[in-house]
Amino acid sequence: MTGREDEKLARAAVGALTGQLALAPKPGLPDPRDLGARAPLRDHGALRWSAKALAPGLTAMAAAARRTGEPTAQLRAELGAIGRCTEHTVGLAGGGHRGALWTLGFLVAAAALTPGTTAAEVTATARGLAAFPDRGAPRRPSRGSTISARYGAAGARGEARAGFP
Predict the structure, then answer these.
(1) Which among 84, 88, 90, 97 counts the fewest CB atoms within 10 Å?
(2) How far apart are alpha carbons 80 and 77 in whole angstroms?
(3) DSSP 36
(4) Residue 50 has pLDDT above 90, yes or no
(5) pTM for this entry
(6) What mean pLDDT do residues 112-122 have?
(7) Containing H/E element for 18?
(8) Collapsing DSSP states into helix, strand and coil, what is residue 39?
(9) Residue 151, number of CB atoms within 10 A of its CB
(10) How many angstroms separate the CA atoms of 63 and 4, rounded?
(11) DSSP run (H or E) holding 88
(12) What angle do CA 112, 51, 49 make, to 5 degrees?
């Protein structure tokens, strides 16, 4: 895998994320049916910009995985560090998609580690990466983890650790 392939993985992930903006209904999230009513068009634009801001971080995650060559605790730590830097960039671009960064980061890294394999193998590798603790993670709860706890949902972390069922 090359740098160009890392970028291709990142573009595919961002394309999936921006593509889902057109889907409806999405309770609690802006969708095409409620633009102008509940969610202003700028919310949709901000989500699109923040999704696009993920691309450099996702490319770096794919490159780190390719360079490391196996799902290790060291790779997990590097993915976490890249993710935290990417979160800052995404925040400057409009804010959303922290959970998507978590999910897509593991999937992109797993795809870079296991090129040419099945979706099941990629998700199994992503699950293995998510199982390693992130010792550099902030101790404060995220908005997503707070909502997950309130409603009993797995959230992005839980979905990754479960292998994206």
Answers:
(1) 88
(2) 5
(3) T
(4) no
(5) 0.81
(6) 94
(7) helix 3-19
(8) strand
(9) 8
(10) 10
(11) helix 73-93
(12) 145
